[in-house]
Amino acid sequence: MAVSVEPRSNATSDVATVVVRGACPHDCPDTCATLVSVQDGRAVRIQGDPDHPVTAGFLCAKVNRYLERTYHPDRLQYPMRRVGPKGSGEFVRVSWDEALDDIAMRLRSIAETHGADAILPYSYAGTMGLIQAESMDRRFFHALGASQLLRTICSTAGGEGLVMTNGSRVGADPEGLEHSDLVLLWGTNTLTSNPHLWPFVLKARERGARVLCIDPVRTRTAEQCDEWLAIRPGTDAALALAMMHVVFDEGFEDADYLAQHTVGADELRARVKEWTPERAAPITGLDAGRIRELGREYGRAKAAFVRINYGLQRHAGGGMAVRTIACLPAVTGHWRRPGGGVLLSTSGSFKFNRAALARPELGSHTRSINMIRLGEALNSPDAGVGGPPVQALVVYNSNPVDVAPDRNAVLRGMAREDLFTVVLEHFQTNTADWADYVLPATTQLEHWDVHFAYGHNSATLNRPAIEPLGEARPNSEIFRQLGRRMGLPPELFADDDIALIKVALDSQAETFRGVTFETLMERGWTRLNVPTPYLPFANGGFGTPSGKVEFRSERMKALGLDPLPTYIPPRELPETAPELAKRFPLSLISSPRHYFLNTTFVNVASLRKGAEPECIVHPNDAARRNLQGGERVVIHNDRGHFGAVVRVEDSVREGVVWAPSIWWGKLSPDGQNANAVTSQDETDLGRGPVFYDTLVEVSAAD
Q1: Which of 130, 224, 533, 635 is most buried as measured by Cβ atoms within 10 A of its Cβ?
Q2: Quick check: is 162 in a domain?
Q3: Can you give the CATH number for the domain in which 655 is found?
Q4: Which H or E element spans position 517?
Q5: What is the pTM of this model?
């Protein structure tokens, strides 16, 4: 387990310290390599690995507090069965055998009575590790014949948009960013959601690169950039089209790259000819002259690095927006040089053997339910779900009562007396309050796992640093035990977690040559078999059907979408929903609070810091509503409402309200959060959520 044992002279005692290599488990591009110091079986320190090229010895403000979360006094340590009304949070302690036996019996009865697809798993990225997130759990539900969950809540729209243009979820190498001569941080609050990229940004700036932030909110990242471009929410594709108009119009395109490595260049040129800066200006809210100059800056650059994140794809046209931005480096040939290109995700380079882990073929004939439509699935099974009503919900690595859109619809569904709910958790979340059984899961310090990244190119191993607290068990072991009790094929559940890691690493991909269990055990992390910096598309080699960047996409056409890049406006904007906008004229953005990661860490007091939900509105919008900074307000629309304390600042553009999230309902004054007002609508590609495609009004609280 340990990488070193060092007798050290401490201030209080002389105790041997064991340092254990691990990985941050959270849904963040950085996937940090960690070092956990353990004394007498207790973790006493967590830090970033100084040898890792991206972690570089530091952790974010949240994970620096990971020990507080692990040893939190409210940590769940024993299985519990509900004894009070649903939602009351009233439970009694039971044994593991009692809990697992009863859960298996109830699931078996539901499968026999209603069909196994009446059982729905619900999970996402509470941990990003492959073993605790998509191994034994997937084998269990696939073999059982349960409904498949479409895991769309974060990245599918942008991911599909990237695939339609470039053919894969592969992007520019962040370790090459320091060579860039122009950095566009587009729809990303880097210092909050990707902080280990920032040192590379600073190196580029030291070499002379300008750093621009394109965002409706002047985030802490925008504050540190050379310029903030306050774009209207959901209009990013219009800006990208206008930038390409300038590039073509003023002769900045790379004709050779276009001829060799792209499809549809002439059609793209014709399309963007219509998208003058003057046309894009009223759509984006940016000055036409500034749009033109931005196009020139991008065209003159030799290696512009465009970092886009997932916020800008949480609109009706989110997939098309990412697809359109992804065209930029192919037009200018910036893919040829270190520091050039576009980065949404590096995950496509990680060729773990996920099929062997999850065994998807066992469940290939069951129905699929979109996780963002959980409220609909639990309340209105005839509205597109098909098959039997959901009778059992098994939740792990997620907190759907607080994170799923249209929160009040989810709550109505969770309140059904005939719904059997099991929740694997670390804490008594709002979701756990509605469970029939709550099972204590281990944290990252207490189990084995292996991790990919979507913000760099190294795989990382996580070793357990301490024994599980109380009776907590890894997710993998819980599903292993349930599978045996359900009488499912025993060979599916024979692998222990180390064996599962070796299964995941059993890949024939060239990028995985040299990535082995032995190398990971030795160092804790291993860079994929790619050069440094990695230039994935310097000489073409795109993963599209043509092998080229597809400005024109026949796959898009087959989906009934425009085969060329275009602008698809948000569904909820004054110009697209004028009647709705008369009542709810403000666009809501509910991106993460700096000290939260979705709902993780919200219950850590040192990170909550006595704060409560807040929202930020522009001074002009506040004046129209007679709002004063510091007063309580209600953000509302027809779907619901949530309360906050208002701040009046010009750090958001006019017409926008920013409510940093996601708060636990039970830790909010009114028991609600921002998802009370978001919808279950889907994006153009990937069936993703439209969290930031939401019109609201802000009113003084009664």
Answers
A1: 635
A2: no
A3: 2.40.40.20
A4: helix 517-523
A5: 0.95
